[in-house]
Amino acid sequence: MNNQALELPQRRDSDIPPQTILVVDDDVPNVEFLQQGLARQGFEVHAAHSAQQAMHRASEKRPDAILLNLCLPDMDGFELCQQFADSPDTGNVPVIALSELQKPGVVRASRAAGCCFYMHKPYDPNALLLLIRHAIQEANDY
Q1: CA 61, CA 58: separation in Å to the nearest integer?
Q2: Domain topology for 20-141
Q3: Does the N-terminal or the C-terminal CB of the chain have fewer CB atoms within 10 Å?
Q4: pLDDT in tens, 64-115
Q5: Per residue in 113-127, pLDDT tens?
Q6: Which regions of 35-133 does DSSP assign to beta strands (E)?
């Protein structure tokens, strides 16, 4: 992962409630990096370090987008993404897969599981921020 700070201008819409992001990753430093950077951009960020915790937090917090590491300790990320897609609480929430997986077909498999976008680690944090905003806007337009 690139350790550069998310550098795009901060949101200034103080009358609009913050959009929420659920970060699902068992790598604590990665979660902390994303939480800090996204919070600086005006997002409310929640974290889950396992699939079970992610399903609970997603139904409780109703995030606007989910950032999902495909390698989790308790469940395959593709399976979790399918559960998000099948749940009435998260079925319309865009899921962005973040992964180091190099195997052929991983992008296709993530799309088939319900992810709307895939980013390979390490990623450019500014590109991720733009992708998050695009995914949320696209979901709201739908």
Answers
A1: 5
A2: Rossmann fold (3.40.50)
A3: C
A4: 999 999 999 999 999 999 999 999 999 999 999 999 988 889 999 999 999 9
A5: 999 999 999 999 999
A6: 44-48, 65-69, 95-99, 117-120
Q: Beta strands of 1-142 (E only): which ranges?
A: 20-24, 44-48, 65-69, 95-99, 117-120
41 in Cβ contact with 8 (< 8 Å): yes
**Alpha-carbon gap, residue 65 to 95, rounded angstroms:** 6
Residue 123, token pair as written in the block: 């990623």
Angle at 81 between CA 75 and CA 82, to 5 degrees: 100
**Helix 28-40 vs helix 125-141: crossing angle, to nearest 10:** 70
Provide the terminal-to-terminal Cα distance of the chain, rounded to the nearest Å.
31
For residue 82 the two structure tokens come to 């399918």
DSSP three-state, residue 76 = strand
Per the listing, tokens 């913050």 go with 18
